[in-house]
Amino acid sequence: MEFNKVYKKGALELLSGLDEGVADLIILDPNYQDWDKFCDKGIIELSMNKLKNEGNLILFTKKPYDFNLRNVINKFYRNEIIWKYIKTGNWVSNKLPTYSYQKIYWAIKSKRHYFKARTGMPYSPNTVQGNKGYLVFDGYKEKSKPFKNSEEGIWLNDFLHIERRREDGGKIPTKPIKLCQILLRCFCPKNGLVVDPFCGGGNILKVAKAEGFNFIASDLDEYSVIYTEKKLRNLTIQTKLFE
Fold this sequence. Notes:
Layout: E1 5-7, H1 11-16, E2 23-28, H2 35-40, H3 43-50, E3 51-61, H4 66-72, E4 77-84, E5 101-108, E6 134-137, E7 140-143, E8 159-161, E9 166-167, E10 172-173, H5 177-187, E11 193-196, H6 203-211, E12 214-218, H7 222-233
Parallel strand pairs: 1-12, 2-3, 2-11, 4-8, 11-12
Antiparallel strand pairs: 3-5, 4-5, 6-7, 9-10
């Protein structure tokens, strides 16, 4: 299967066509109500089979679909990130509270997994450098080490505030560029292979191309594939997307 290409295929078909142990990062982002169906068909085990031993699996979900998924990935589960929306509507149910966040589950194949804790993202202008005071506990007091901004940017936090939008007049579901950038920088080595079998509007692939990652992607929706291919054709590696 060719690198840096978008296929009109279902997720299971794409993953089945990959060689074993080829992917550095697999990102699963289906319609959340379909998680049980995909789990019953073995998408988690299939994804793990296609990952390198150092590889990572990222899964997007939200309540109430997160519960069963969390149980299915239990033996692979590493951590989770809460992604809170900004300036967007809430998910509303007659029987449940409103939600303005999603969960990002992080699963791993082995303890030797790749992880880069710093995102490369700039610090807030309000970040204060210098001494933060004292560490005090059980009668012990020690002056803390001075804080200094790292050249590699901020640490990955487990709670992200990033605005969610749809593209193309609301027709195309996409993840924010900034969120895609954080995930690829932290969970995939440079020049690594990102597999995105639910590519939607293609922002994961846009970031991959701009930042020097390889990718293999697919979507069953023909409109999404055409939209994504056009987006990638109009992007050059020199395009400055984020800073």
